[in-house]
Amino acid sequence: MNLKGKTILVSGAGGGIGTALVRALLEKGAAKIYAGARSTPALEELLQIDRVRIIPVELDITVPASVAAAARQCSDVDLLVNNAGVNRCMGLLEPHAMEAARAEMEVNYFGTLAMCRAFAPILARRGNGAIANVCSIIGLVNLPVNGSYCASKAAGHSLIQGIRAELAPAGVRVVGIYPGPVDTSMTAGQAMPKATSMQVAGAIIAGLANGDEEIYPDPMSEDVQRKLMAAPKQVEQQFAAMIPAR
Ligand SMILES: NC(=O)c1ccc[n+]([C@@H]2O[C@H](COP(=O)([O-])OP(=O)(O)OC[C@H]3O[C@@H](n4cnc5c(N)ncnc54)[C@H](OP(=O)(O)O)[C@@H]3O)[C@@H](O)[C@H]2O)c1
After folding, report:
1. Residue 35 counted as domain residue
2. Using an 8 Å Cβ cutoff, are 140 and 225 in contact?
3. What is the arithmetic mean of pLDDT over 212-219?
4. Which of 9, 58, 96, 220 is 20 to 30 Å from 236 by CA-CA measure?
5. Which is more confidently placed, 243 or 95?
6. Residue 172 lies in a domain
7. Residue of 62, 86, 113, 149 best suited for mutating to test ligand 1, as the one with most atoms within 8 Å of CB
């Protein structure tokens, strides 16, 4: 997909990977970027880069009226980037795990699904549009310390495959993005090697431009994906061993 001149909506654009994607898309020559955020003041720093091409959009993907309003406001999009997500960083058997699991499913699965459903007719009408969903490499293998987040991203992975098939006849491409650890507020305080959000955004844009259906935008996700293809059980066991002592 040639991103030059395109109109793009990025959800969760108020920080982290979302902000980096907006910056990188501007550099690639996008004509208009709708930057979605639950609270638009969070976009102020981003807007200072280009108040003409960046349009703030108040968007909470878990609120049907908010999703519907965004679809009305952004009815000229060529590319929808479903980036918004939450991670409560919790194991499945921890005391508040049910509440965390529901909250993560609400955003990472149901919210993303609602966005796909709202924008599918718009993209289908435009003919050759695309949806790119930011999933996670730990949507493909469970990391127990983030057990319920992984389950919600696994649902997100299945969602990508399903809407890809449903939208193919309309000529709408559906791209899955599977990052490893990235240095954003989501991983704050977690000591581990992390890619920067700008590195990941750059790799995502390169993958989109290249027409990739699945994007592994950092060395760790590339490595895990290779191992998952070769020996999935071994990867499951390797990740299962990363469980902290209680
Ligand atoms: N960081 C990583 O290591 C990593 C790895 C793999 C995948 N990912 C995925 O990458 C995406 C971006 O995460 P990030 O690392 O950049 O973390 P982040 O800085 O916490 O960004 C997440 C964004 O999602 C927004 N959001 C949360 N709930 C929302 C809702 N109901 N409606 C609309 N927006 C909502 C947040 O907005 P508020 O500021 O209003 O909360 C925030 O802007 C997520 O889907 C995440 O799961 C991250």
Report:
1. yes
2. yes
3. 98
4. 96
5. 95
6. yes
7. 86
